[in-house]
Amino acid sequence: MKILFTFYVPSGGVETLNKLRCESLQRSGIECHVLYLMPGSGSQNKANFPVFIAQTDTEIQGILNTYNYDAIIVTSDYLLMERLRRLGYNRTIIYEAQGLGTRSDAQLMIIDALPFFRSYCNAVLIPPTDHLLELFISTCPWLQRYVIPNIVDVHSFHFIPGDPPCDPVIAWVGRLETNKNWSEYLNVAHLIRRSKPNLHLWMFHDPNLASEEQKQLFNTQLQSLGLNDRLNVFTNIPNHLMPVYYSSIAASGGFLLSTSITEGFGYAVAEAVCCTCPVLSTDSDGVRSFIIHNITGKFYPLGNVEAAVNEGLELMDNMPLRSFLREQGRNHMISRFGSEKYAQSFREMMNSFSIF
């Protein structure tokens, strides 16, 4: 069995997902390749499977003709399905719903993609995210659906002892875009700093994925809140080094704050939990699969900055609760997101198309 996964650019959660699942599937005897249409920050991450960067029809057709894939998983980019068919690929194409933004954005995208689903797609693959499943059921009930939880590297992502930062850190991981809601992160940190004057802010993001407008808005708010001297920005950190940072955040007495409006999964939050880094998050749907309030992490209502401040201070000051969340969070990730479960579910999906 030979599978090709495709996405726009090697960056963010999808690049992490592709790396983890290709490694897992190859251990179970499934040959995996990945195609990105453009280069990105994740290109620096090493892979033990073929990774192609190709934009033109000639390049893509050459890959298809050379490797004769049994199935192609097209992530997010529904236009690519028509392109693959036009280039002569006539086997199984499965559309994967990842990173579609807010519920309203996802709904608009699915409606726009309906003609492509009808003409070029055999099924849809969805993480266990309620709003995505509901949208596909209501908008295209005829399309076969498969729900498989994303894989998390619970072995590489664990607490790494080291010298902790002198001051507490509140961290944020994402892109400078509306759905990631970076503005709320700054507002929450600004108010927590009143109780924790030595607070530091760590932000992990890829500036190449931010518009000039978002960058300008960010800089303006940062200055108005007086947080310039508190902020450290980390750009294009290789994924395999993130456990060191999550462990440092945990050891500092701080936490990871996720302010997203909607998440299909939320890889940064999941990986932080694996490293026993406490997390505070909006109830952004996808993170429900690993955050249980006051058991494996904490939720606060989207837009309620005061509630976020109160929950964040409790994470920092209530030591028994903090220790409990850290331990229970990692245990939950180990029990639910192992690589073997993903490989078994993926193989069952392929077998349903008589691909063995």
Describe the structure.
The chain contains twelve helices and 13 strands. It has helices at 12-27, 57-67, 79-86, 103-120, 130-139, 182-195, 212-224, 242-252, 267-274, 305-317, 319-336, 339-351; strands spanning 2-7, 31-36, 51-53, 71-75, 92-96, 123-126, 145-147, 169-174, 200-205, 231-235, 255-258, 279-282, 298-300. Helix 9 links the parallel strand 11 and strand 12 (279-282). By secondary structure, the chain is of the alpha/beta class. The termini are close together. Helix 1 (12-27) packs across helix 12 (339-351) and helix 4 (103-120) packs across helix 5. The model has no long low-confidence stretch (mean pLDDT 94). The longest helix has 18 residues, at 103-120. A seven-stranded parallel beta sheet has the order 3-2-1-4-5-6-7, with helices on both faces. Helix content is 43%, strand content 17%.
Short description:
It is built from 12 helices and 13 strands. By secondary structure, it is α/β, with parallel strands linked by helices.
Map the helices and strands.
Blueprint: E1 2-7, H1 12-27, E2 31-36, E3 51-53, H2 57-67, E4 71-75, H3 79-86, E5 92-96, H4 103-120, E6 123-126, H5 130-139, E7 145-147, E8 169-174, H6 182-195, E9 200-205, H7 212-224, E10 231-235, H8 242-252, E11 255-258, H9 267-274, E12 279-282, E13 298-300, H10 305-317, H11 319-336, H12 339-351
Parallel strand pairs: 1-2, 1-4, 2-3, 4-5, 5-6, 6-7, 8-9, 8-11, 9-10, 11-12, 12-13
Helix pairs in contact: 1-12, 3-4, 4-5, 6-10
